Each structure stands twice: as C-alpha cells, then as structure tokens.
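Note to self: user wants both folds in one dump. Writing first protein now.
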Amino acid sequence: MSAAEPQQPVAEGDQSHVPPLTTRVVIAEDEALIRLDLKEMLEEEGYTVVGEAGDGQKAVELAREHRPDLVILDVKMPILDGISAAEKIAEESIAPVLMLTAFSQRELVERARDAGAMAYLVKPFSKSDVVPAIEMAVSRFTELRALEQEVADLTQRLETRKLVDRAKSVLQTQYGLTEPAAFRWIQKTSMDRRLSMHQVAEAVIQDAAERQQQKEQQKEQSKEQSKEQSKEQGKGQ
C-alpha cells in the first residue's frame, strides 16, 4: 500500500461492549409490550433508556430534548411514522437512528436508509441481534460525522463515502477486520500520514488490485511452466 500504509491492519480481539460507548437511548415503538421488552434488553446490556414514545412525533421531541447517543424507531407508528421521524432526526444530526421493522422488503429498508437510518432490525429480534445493530448504527453515524468534517462539498463527500466503503470491504476481506475497525484503521492512517481518507481509501483499493494482478500473473506463469514441463516429459518418452 506504499505511501498510505504505516503498517498492515490487524484484526481486533473480541472487545466487550459493556459498558457501552453508546449509553443513552430513546426508543419509539407503538406496541407497549415490544417497547418494554426492548427496554429490558437494552438495560440488561448496560444501556440507559432516557425516553420512550409510542409515536414518531413524540420520538422526535424526545430526541431534541435529551440529545441521546442513539434513537431506536419502529417503522410503523401513528401521527408520524418512523421513516419520517428518522428523516427529521437525521436532518438535525441529533443522533444515529436504528430502525425496527416487521417487514424485510428491500424497498422499505432502502427508504429507511435514504431517510437517514444507519442500521435496521427485523422483528422478531433477540438480545443478541440488538447489540450488533446498535454498534453498526453508531459506527456508521461516526463515519458520516468524520466525513462531514473532512469534506465540505456534498457531492465529494458522497464519492468519498463510496470509496471508503469499498476500502472497508477490502480490509474486511483481506485482513478479517470488522466494519468499524476497518474505518478506524482508515481514519487513523489518514491522521498519521496527513492524507485525506479519500487518498487512503484509494491506496487500499489500488493495493488490492495490484495484489490481485500479481496472483493472476503467478497463475499464468504456473500454467506456462506446467505446459513446458508436459512438453519436456513428452519429448523424453
């Protein structure tokens, strides 16, 4: 990776999320039993529920009042649905949003993402599903904040985000990093080398392409060597 790489990425060990970096949560779910179950799951994992709502409008008000670390919204709610509420919360950059939905259709997931949701959970879910989804939402929100600070222009920011996503995928595949760890490596390398994250991401992708090209060349060389050996063996017989 030449200029952009101070050292190769190293997979992180299994790090406990308790006490979590994200502690203060607002939850909005119009079904009281599901809301209660979710609150219990969160509290058992070390989170603090600072506000509860049964509709999207109340969720937005609670988010503005408490400025939590995370807002969890159900998609289907009265007064203001979860996607509309997510849009308002995202516009004001209050907190990352995690969506809850009973529908796994791609269209709904894309609508939630376009509205500003950082991650989603399909109901019914278990406690083991909740924590990774929260960590994903918070991680992606942190990434967006970092990109906003580095790139002012919206179009360039979107391009950089796409490039960083590709670089993260490379780091996850080649070095076994988690998505948050891959972003942290890109961010740290950017700071250490005084390069933009765009430049670091480009270097990661270019390095991966060069490695792939080398593998293909080695394959071709091996094939050629095998052919030559077969010819020599044929002559000797």
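First done. Writing the second protein, which came from a different request thread.
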Amino acid sequence: MREHRERVRPEWIDYNGHLSEAYYVLVFGFATDAVMDQVGLDAAYRTGTGCSLYTVEAHVRYLREVKADSELVVTSRIVGTGAKKVRICHEMAVDGTVVATEEIMALHVDGAQGGTTPFPAAIAERFAALAEQPPEYAGRSIG
C-alpha cells in the first residue's frame, strides 16, 4: 500500500462549500502517479520508453463531504494485474474517515505505436508483489 497526502486548496471548494467532485478525481490521479513512481513507471521510464499508464475505466464513490483546508490521505492498493493492465483501488480519508474511493483499470500503452504493450518483467513483478485482495466495494456497478 502506498499513501499520498494533499491539502485541500481554497479554489477546490464548490458553491456548496465542499470539495468539488473534479478535485477528488484530481487527487486520485496524483495517487496513481505516486503508484507509478513506486513501481518504476516514473518520469524517466515514460521519457525513455514512450510508455505510460492510461486510465480506461474509473468508478468513484463520494461518501462524505470534505471541507476547505482538510488534509486528504489517499491509500492505494494494487488489486489486479495482467500482462498489459493493472487495477488500482484508492481510498481517500480525512482524519481517519474514508470520504471517497476510486477503482481504476489502467492499460500500459506505447504512445509511439498507439496501442497496449506488456509491462517489462521487472515492473510486472513489482505489481505482482504488491497485489492484495480487493476491498468489498471493488467491482461494484452503479445501481
């Protein structure tokens, strides 16, 4: 599991006085970037290979309101891997209470060739070593 911390900025607060929904997704994106750095899909990798993760599906649950100046702590876990894909669950908390979750499916894409490509062996091994059971909310549909 990996943690990413971010403080809510005043410009992220909407007309209801809460964190605007777009900024939940922005912070979850920063958490995905932190996971990428952890496994070796960092800026040097992306520049050197032309490959990166592309999020192709996401499911966000907004569970609690978040006020201005809150410290957000996002815990990320790898819950599924494949030759060319990874499934990540993020949990966002404020003061120990989960306020939102996001589950994403991301593909490893070669930008120059415009298609998916297998992860290098070392990165696939890192993802596999980090993999854990999905939380109870993972895989749910809207309904």
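Dump finished. Worth passing along: The chain has three helices and six strands.
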